[in-house]
Write a structure and sequence with these properties.
The chain is mostly beta strands and 141 residues long. It has helices spanning 61-64, 84-87, and strands at 6-14, 17-22, 26-31, 45-51, 54-59, 78-82, 92-96, 98-106, 121-127, 130-135. It has one domain (6-140): OB fold (Dihydrolipoamide Acetyltransferase, E2P) (Beta Barrel). Residues 6-141 form the CheW-like domain.
């Protein structure tokens, strides 16, 4: 009997919804600090910050994926920092509202039927009585 392939993903919140991404892309999770804004940068780039001596570009995935801010969320308190070797475009982090947990996902159960033409969405994972959207970190660079 063969076992289905599983992948560990980080589940996090943006607005009122839950999202996840493969932990293989993640280097660390840090508290949001003070950002330095960069003039004339794309709208989804919030600025840069110094993380252990490395200048890291901080991106707002809500702007990339057109996600509305949720009601009652103080939000934007954590930064998911990507492994520069995996993300492929230097030191990048996503500013997220909340970090929930690391979960194991059966890759065969990933529902891809709901995909639009957006290459940034890998599919939807059903978790208990809710859905978690699996996003691709390379889409927001």
């Amino acid at each position: 009997m063969s076992r289905a392939a599983t992948t560990q993903v980080l589940e996090f919140g943006l607005g009122d919804e839950s999202y996840c991404l493969d932990i293989g892309y993640i280097d660390e999770i840090v508290d949001a600090g003070e950002l330095t804004r960069i003039p004339n940068s794309p709208p989804h780039v919030e600025g840069v910050m110094d993380l252990r001596g490395r200048t890291t570009s901080i991106i707002d995935p809500k702007k990339v994926f057109d996600i509305r801010s949720g009601d009652g969320h103080a939000g934007r308190n954590r930064i998911v920092v990507f492994d520069p070797d995996e993300a492929g475009d230097g030191a990048i982090g996503w500013m997220v509202d909340e970090v929930y947990q690391v979960i194991s996902v059966d890759v065969d159960s990933l529902d891809e039927s709901t995909l639009s033409e957006d290459e940034g969405v890998r599919g939807v994972v059903k978790r208990d009585d809710r859905f978690v959207v699996w996003v691709d970190p390379l889409a927001a660079q």
